[in-house]
Design a protein that fits this description.
The protein is mainly α. The protein has a domain of 68 residues. Helix content is 47%, strand content 10%. The strands form 2 sheets. It has a two-stranded antiparallel ribbon with strand order 1-2. A two-stranded antiparallel ribbon has the order 3-4. Strand 1 and strand 2 form a beta hairpin. The protein is globular.
Length: 213
């Protein structure tokens, strides 16, 4: 069960207060996807992963956090129209705006995860073109930061991004023969390579890995 509370938050850009949903707890039953998107109920809480100011359009994990973003930035066409991408999902649009804000703030890791989450939201709205677009941009974004603790996990996520965006040959070339410290990660990559050779862009879960071996 997921629980949340409504709180009043003051936007650090425009100074206006708005009611925002704050996630207090959640859980998940089932298997994560191969890009580690959580199972339900956690995945249904995505609406509360970011806050958006209804007055000026600023998007942040918490609207009251200090930022370098200005009102002028929020009125720029690139921000307002999400690089001229016509997202079906308003949630995907919100995550994409957070990506643009993160890029402006030189927060490359945050930008990567915002693109990944925009892809997930696009999947849910069956917006395949934008899901692929966000995955391709997320792959590029991955090269702009280093997280030693999550290095192997991010490499596994990247393999799924490549396959789900149809970059099958690149996945096979990059990952054939790679060995990870985690047996699970090795099984995931073996599975990814097999599916890439089949030109398969289907969403799979970690449970599918165990069924196949």
């Amino acid at each position: 069960m997921s629980t949340f509370m409504e709180i009043k938050v003051k936007c650090s850009v425009c100074g206006k207060k708005s009611e925002q949903s704050f996630l207090t707890s959640t859980n998940q039953f089932g298997s994560p996807d191969l890009d580690f998107r959580p199972a339900q109920m956690a995945r249904s809480t995505m609406l509360m992963w970011l806050q958006e100011c209804p007055n000026c359009g600023f998007v942040a994990k918490k609207l009251s956090d200090k930022t370098k973003i200005t009102k002028e930035f929020l009125l720029d066409k690139q921000y307002l129209y999400c690089d001229n991408r016509n997202f079906i999902s308003e949630l995907a649009e919100m995550f994409y705006r957070h990506y643009l804000i993160s890029i402006f703030n030189n927060e490359n890791e945050a930008a990567f995860y915002s693109l990944l989450h925009a892809a997930w939201a696009s999947d849910d709205s069956e917006d395949n073109d934008n899901a692929i677009y966000c995955r391709k941009k997320a792959i590029i974004q991955l090269s702009k930061f280093v997280d030693e603790e999550k290095k192997e996990e991010l490499m596994v996520v990247c393999a799924d991004l490549l396959r789900r965006s149809g970059q099958f040959d690149l996945l096979v070339t990059e990952y054939q023969g790679k060995n990870f410290s985690s047996e699970l990660f090795n099984k995931i990559i073996t599975f990814q390579i097999e599916k890439a050779k089949e030109k398969d862009t289907t969403c799979y879960t970690i449970n599918d890995i165990f069924v196949s071996f």
